[in-house]
Predict the 3D structure of the following.
Amino acid sequence: MDRIFSGVQPTGNLHLGNYLGAIRNWVSLQDRFECLFCVVDMHAITTWQEPAALAASTREVAAAMMAAGIDPGRHIIFNQSQVPGHAELAWIFNCVARMGWLNRMTQFKEKAGKNRENASVGLFAYPNLMAADILLYKGTHVPVGEDQKQHLELTRDIAQKFNNDFGVDFFPIVEPLIFGSATRVMSLRDGTAKMSKSDASDYSRINMTDDADAIARKIRKAKTDPHPLPASTDAFDGRPEAANLMGIFAALADTPVEDVCGRFAGQPFSTFKQELADLALATLAPMQDEMRRLMADPSHVDGVLRDGAARARGLAEPVLREVQDIVGFLRP
Ligand code: TYM
């Protein structure tokens, strides 16, 4: 059975990139796959998280998944820390993956910045935990945004090396699913930088919890260039802001970017931005209402997470037992 695994970090500021690049795509996969969607709180603490904010954000991400249309009756929504197998398998993968592989990870370089000596060991080993997340359930397909591609290549390398080292055909080689017109949503302040939870400027992103005023204001203030909008995507070269805003429009409207170019060709950004703001509001408002409704009932959200973790543990346990046998851990 093909199985989907994907995750989101509960580090606050869930944004439009997370929604359009990942969560929204998950909704469309529910009919074809058995799915696990994970709030990766153990990944979150690779950088400092204030404990109360981490717990609140964990609920919020779970609520966002449900509000977007993930059905926790048919699929599993849970938080990573509640299934101990993630940490157990990650340790084994720490011993499979090579330092050189992790040294090449661009996300570590970006996040650690100049002060590598002061980065947590967890931040360095982060991709091994991610491989464990997926392979603990023998996940076969992983829907993510463009920025996770390198981590998934590492997941494939780890699975392959484990299989080779132990002479087994045990872990599947996962397939990344990177699709839609918003695989890399860029900052509203700089069309060459990724929209990110950690950007210091709140004007760089649309948060899933932003109200109508904030969304309209951020789009109005979004960086543009002085030219009218292009007639085709061929003219996006050297115009990253136009490419980004038109890509966001296309994703929200669920139409090809070429159609958006056709519709707005030659028009000024001001007209387009008004329409983009209206569309963003119309698309996001129902989900935001549902998120607020869910957040008003934290015990319901907690119940979904608890039930999801129990089901996830049930799937993980036989895999872990087999891994222990393969590695030679005595189970007396
Ligand atoms: P995270 O929490 O940074 O992001 C969650 C998802 O959102 C996507 N995404 C974007 N897509 C388009 N444009 C953007 N600007 C943008 N920013 C984020 C990400 O690609 C991701 O799909 N390491 C992962 C979490 C994780 C995971 C996993 C994912 C942990 N274990 C196992 C898949 C499978 C992360 O930090 O995502």
Q: What stands out?
A: Residues 298-327 form the longest helix (30 residues). Strands lie at 3-8, 34-39, 76-79, 141-143, 175-177. The chain has two domains: 3-183+298-327, 202-293. The pocket of tryptophanyl-5'AMP is lined by residues 5-9, 17-18, 21-22, 40, 43, 130, 133-134, 142, 144-145, 147-148, 151, 182-185, 194-195 (CB under 6 Å).
